[in-house]
Design a protein that fits this description.
Number of helices of chain A: 7
CATH topology of chain A: NADH Oxidase
Largest interface: A-B, 28 and 26 residues
Strand content of chain A: 15-25%
Largest sheet of chain A: 7 strands, antiparallel
CATH topology of the largest domain in chain B: Rossmann fold
Order of helices and strands of chain B: HHHHEHEHEHEHEH
Number of strands of chain A: 9
CATH architecture of chain A: 3-Layer(aba) Sandwich
CATH class of chain A: Alpha Beta
Number of domains of chain A: 1
Shape of chain B: globular
Helix content of chain A: 25-40%
Distance between the termini of chain A: 34 Å
Structural class of chain B: alpha/beta
Distance between the termini of chain B: 28 Å
Oligomer: heterodimer
Strand content of chain B: 5-15%
CATH architecture of the largest domain in chain B: 3-Layer(aba) Sandwich
Radius of gyration of chain B: 17 Å
CATH superfamily of the largest domain in chain B: Cobalamin-binding domain
Helix content of chain B: 55-70%
Shape of chain A: globular
Strand order of the largest sheet of chain B: 2-1-3-4-5
Chain lengths: 220, 205
């Protein structure tokens, strides 16, 4: 089990990622919104401690819908499973923008500024995703890694979060899982990377998923 | 267009406060100010959003400006004869903590003349019904962002019907669509905050 906490400077959070999280797909906000967003970034990001935890476990594909991680059967469904050919191990992970960011965001929200709240929410999403990219970058075990896959996406039932969390210590990185499978702090991510010498890295989730109702959907 | 309209359309809260005071000083009534400047400005920015010419932050800026102007008018409205279009109880359903979209809808409804009771997030069916009764609501608005929590909307709709409450139920949220709304027996559905106002008005007509 590898666990890490780290801090980042505001300028490590790219404007492009923030704009995308705010809904600007191929464009950027006007100067006023840009200045507001960067001010929120500069205020909140220094307060954040990002965290991730991961472990590599034995894995096998059981069927077109199911896999086994560390002896437990998961059902990520057909879309994800179709990209797991050659998987021998899986890197299971949980990452979070952390309680510190959650608290800073709540303080900002208490001021009643709905614009700042929206921006802080968007930046929090970027930070949570950054924990995964940092983990992937720092991972130096056997590979190659697949794309990350998470419960709740590509038709994988979000309730399997509980099964995933059962393979970690209680409150991994401080993250609490609710009965309805919601993670707190809100800006947290979980899932797995498949590992295998013959594994072919596949395109991003939204390019392989047919769930057009997903709120995370990016233009594929 | 007057200064207040421009201030709200452009999302300039301080300018909106000044402009609303100027309008009052000129002898305009709160309801007249809302009807002639504020609601048209919110309708205009909503149309810009629908057309893809502005983004969510612009809507939020306008809603914030609208709110700052309403904060000045509200005390006067309570003392006067001003009426609202209708009363809406709104909340994100149980199990879901996402509230940005819901708050935007609440602001847009308030900006267009509705009285809005915002129950926040993680709201149970019992709480929705209780609040609707307490406030004699015309509409209950349910929001969900997660595919796992949207199913709870049906429980709320069923509970409202079982209670015999004379209230319309509207649903919205990123994973929803009209087919889902129809399937759970909701009276209305909207895919965005601007359309939510149109649907709410239609439900009351």
């Amino acid at each position: 089990m590898v666990e890490k906490a780290f801090r980042i400077s505001p300028d490590e959070v790219s404007e492009k990622e923030i704009w995308f999280a705010m809904g600007y797909k191929d464009s950027a906000p006007d100067e006023r919104v840009r200045e507001m967003a960067l001010a929120v970034r500069d205020e909140l990001v220094p307060k954040a401690t990002l965290r991730y935890i991961y472990q590599v476990v034995e894995a096998e594909k059981l069927s077109p819908r199911q896999v086994r991680f560390a002896g437990k059967t998961f059902t990520p469904e057909g879309i994800i499973c179709s990209y797991l050919k050659g998987m021998t191990h899986a890197l299971l992970f949980i990452g979070t923008a952390g309680w510190e960011y959650d608290r800073a965001k709540e303080e900002l929200k208490a001021n009643g500024d709905i614009v700042a709240d929206f921006i802080a929410d968007s930046i929090g999403s970027v930070l949570a995703e950054m924990t995964v990219s940092r983990m992937e970058k720092e991972y130096d075990g056997p590979g190659p890694l697949s794309m990350p896959y998470s419960p709740g996406y590509c038709n994988w039932d979000i309730r399997e979060q509980h099964l995933l969390f059962s393979l970690f210590p209680e409150r991994p990185c401080g993250v609490i899982l609710s009965e309805s499978s919601l993670m707190t702090p809100e800006k947290s991510v979980s899932g797995f990377f498949a590992l295998g010498e013959t594994l072919q890295r596949q395109p991003y989730h939204c390019q392989i998923c047919r769930n057009t109702r997903c709120y995370k959907r990016r233009n594929a | 267009m007057d200064n207040l309209y421009q201030a709200i359309f452009k999302g300039m809260a301080p300018m909106a406060k000044t402009a609303v005071q100027e309008s009052l000083d000129k002898g305009k009534t709160p309801q007249g100010i809302i009807d002639e400047s504020m609601i048209p400005a919110m309708e205009a920015i909503g149309q810009e959003f629908e057309a893809g010419r502005v983004f969510v932050p612009n809507l939020l800026l306008s809603a914030r400006a609208m709110k700052s102007a309403l904060d000045i008018l509200k005390p006067l409205m309570l003392a006067g004869q001003t009426t609202t279009i209708g009363t809406v109880v709104i909340g994100t359903v149980k199990g879901d903590l996402h509230d940005i979209g819901k708050n935007l809808v609440a602001s847009m409804l308030e900006g267009r003349g509705f009285k809005v009771i915002n129950l926040g997030t993680d709201v149970s069916k019992e709480r929705f019904i209780e609040a609707a009764k307490e406030n004699n609501a015309d509409i209950i608005c349910l929001s969900a962002l997660l595919t796992t929590t949207m199913d709870y909307m049906k429980e709320v709709v069923d509970a409202v019907r079982a209670d015999g409450l004379n209230v319309k139920v509207m649903v919205g949220g990123a994973p929803l669509n009209q087919e889902f709304a129809d399937g759970i027996g909701a009276d209305g559905y909207s895919s965005n905050a601007n359309e939510a106002v149109v649907v709410a008005k239609k439900l009351l007509s």
